[in-house]
Design brief:
It is a single chain. With about 300 residues, the protein is of the alpha/beta class. The chain is built from nine helices and six strands. It has a four-stranded parallel sheet. It has a two-stranded antiparallel sheet with strand order 1-2. Helix 5 links the parallel strand 4 and strand 5. Helix 3 packs parallel to helix 5, helix 5 runs parallel beside helix 6 and helix 6 packs across helix 7. The longest helix is centred in the C-terminal third of the chain and has 23 residues. The chain is globular, with a radius of gyration of 19 Å.
């Protein structure tokens, strides 16, 4: 995906090319109707320890900011909604990962509905899910295949349109091939591609989606009352929430109160210190990275 907008929580939109914005919309509509040229990417936030609510709030707010700017330039709501690809991350919580995509779809539909689109399909968000890297240790890296499989299953069951499964290891020569084969296993052997909505009717997932959705919607409206992500005040509020969640996650992991992947809970007796938590990327992540571009 390509976007004429560069965005960061610290600086907001550093670039907005109106001509390129209009051009890419026209090209995708006329020649590449299935292309989603504008990407709202939450992976950098997910990698640095943001919570589920903060990640979805950021995606909804940034997506809405793109819609507002597009409407101001005279574009149709249907064309704008159809041009956005939302890229979400995963976690170690299987059920919450299923609820992640389901909740986001409901929230985005509520946002678009206010603009009265002509086509009902404009209410449907296009969601790409990318498996996380922060919970994949390089020691005992083969176990990451299990983590990737459950994260991929959660994404598919939750209703993701596209799925990107990262390699299970940075060094293994078969890392790309084995991770790619997870796609084939889920599609051809598990048959998940044949089920329209496998999670429909689950009491826990329906209630979890509703609870998460209410929390995100409340925060979204709060940020919009401040002027949206184009204002420094709204960005500072969301950034502060991200930092608080991240710091709490690091503290709980270091104290063994939170099991990330087992490495921080069941320490190897051969380890000289309890530094394995740093392998997740949470403890060693630089605070400045949270301020990096999230386009």
């Amino acid at each position: 995906c390509w976007s004429p907008m560069q965005f960061s929580l610290s600086d907001g939109f550093s670039e907005f090319d109106q001509h390129s914005f209009a051009q890419v919309l026209e090209q995708s509509k006329g020649f590449l109707p299935l292309l989603k040229p504008i990407e709202v990417n939450t992976i950098p936030l997910n990698s640095e320890g943001s919570g589920l609510a903060e990640e979805l709030t950021f995606a909804i707010c940034l997506g809405h900011e793109i819609i507002v700017r597009g409407l101001e330039l005279g574009h149709m709501i249907d064309d704008l909604s159809a041009s956005i690809n939302f890229k979400l991350g995963t976690s170690s919580n299987y059920l919450f990962d299923i609820a992640r995509v389901r909740t986001f779809r409901q929230l985005w539909a509520s946002v678009i509905k206010n603009y009265q689109p002509v086509h009902a399909c404009s209410l449907n968000a296009f969601v790409t899910v990318e498996t996380s890297t922060w919970n994949k240790p390089q020691k005992d890296s083969r176990s990451n295949l299990l983590r990737l499989t459950t994260e991929a299953m959660a994404a598919v069951i939750g209703g993701a349109d596209e799925l990107q499964i990262n390699p299970y290891s940075l060094n293994a020569p078969d890392a790309d091939r084995l991770s790619l084969n997870i796609h084939h296993l889920l599609r051809h052997e598990a048959g998940l591609a044949r089920a329209k909505d496998p999670a429909a009717g689950s009491y826990y997932l329906e209630n979890a989606s509703e609870a998460i959705g209410n929390l995100v919607w409340k925060q979204f409206n709060k940020l919009e009352d401040l002027g949206g992500l184009s204002t420094q005040e709204a960005r500072a509020l969301l950034y502060n929430d991200l930092l608080l969640t991240r710091e709490a996650s690091i503290a709980d992991a270091a104290a063994g109160k939170r099991s990330l992947i087992g490495f921080n809970t069941y320490l190897s007796p051969f380890e000289a210190d309890k530094s394995t938590t740093s392998e997740t990327g949470l403890a060693s992540a630089a605070e400045s990275r949270m301020k990096s571009e999230a386009q």
